Amino acid sequence: MFDGLRKKFAALFGRGGGSEEVVKRAEVEEKILEILLEADVSLETAEKIVKRMEERVRAMGRKVGMNDLREALRSVVVEMLQGARPPVDIMEQAKKPYVILFLGINGTGKTTTIGKMAHLIKKSGRRVVIAAGDTFRAGAIEQIAILGEQVGVSVIKHSSGGDPAAVAYDAIEHAASRGIDFVLIDSAGRMQTNRNLMDEMKKIKRVAKPDLTLLVIDAVVGQDAVNQARAFAEAVGFDGVILTKLDTDARGGAVITVAEEVGKPIYYLGVGQGMDDLMPFDPVWYANRIVPSPE
Ligand SMILES: Nc1nc2c(ncn2[C@@H]2O[C@H](COP(=O)(O)OP(=O)(O)OP(=O)(O)O)[C@@H](O)[C@H]2O)c(=O)[nH]1
After folding, report:
1. Which domains, from first to last, does the chain contain?
2. Does 106 sit in the ligand 1 pocket, CB within 6 Å?
3. Which among 102, 106, 112, 143 is the best mutation to test ligand 1's pocket, defined by most ligand atoms within 8 Å of the CB?
4. Each residue's pLDDT tens digit, 167-220
5. Which of 43, 70, 207, 240 is the right S-S partner for 13, CB 3.0 to 4.6 Å?
6. How high is the ipTM of this complex?
């Protein structure tokens, strides 16, 4: 995971011996900038990282070695990502049912992520129901029904082509009447440019009045994540992001780009196709992963 960044930073900062040597700071910073850009971090964000690093090492008031630079980079990345920490712990919500709507363009992993979330909620000892709100794509209802079965969670569904807002409404009623803690609403993947589908989304939101709306973004798209987020923010609005497919994101910069440029919290990271492959967003874990300590 994040191999692009991880390997290059590991090579730059060396392995053990010699890393305390005084180095030409500007050269290392130039190289860091280059590595970040290759990982698909935007120029603006990459420059910001390097500038903050520079401020940090200057404040040390002495000549710096590779270890200092590595620690400065790591702490700047953590600091930058702290701003994207979720303000609420989804698992600790007292409101019943707590309704979460999932949005995103086609194939980002919404349906799979809902299966993973349902699994996580169930493992935490709380009850959850899924609304099969993707009535648009052939096979989507069946896909979510299979995932529901796999994780042992009920799925409320209508027939294909039905009104997704009605499915969401039924699922919320179902949960309310049975004291179920969470409702997870799937939705049809839509290109951010498709006005009709975006309008339909607004209707689901109006009817379901979700407590949290999460945009599911595929990390592999890199900087296009920012465009997708902007379009969804304008058309429908959302509260936070789930970044998926980090296990296949060779470049590794999407986490930084989304944290810095989307301006919404990142709730979870999808790290595989299995139902356990969802992890809470953790800036320290990510920074340690991309800027490894010498072996
Ligand atoms: N490697 C990997 N694959 C993932 C991850 N999340 C989802 N996928 C895969 O991505 C593909 C698309 O996932 P879906 O859940 O069907 O995507 P969707 O957003 O519901 O798709 P639409 O209904 O077309 O909008 C599937 O093959 C998933 O197994 C992840 O974190 N890692």
Report:
1. 3-82 (1.20.120.140), 90-281 (3.40.50.300)
2. yes
3. 112
4. 999 999 999 999 999 999 999 877 656 777 778 888 899 999 999 999 999 998
5. 70
6. 0.96
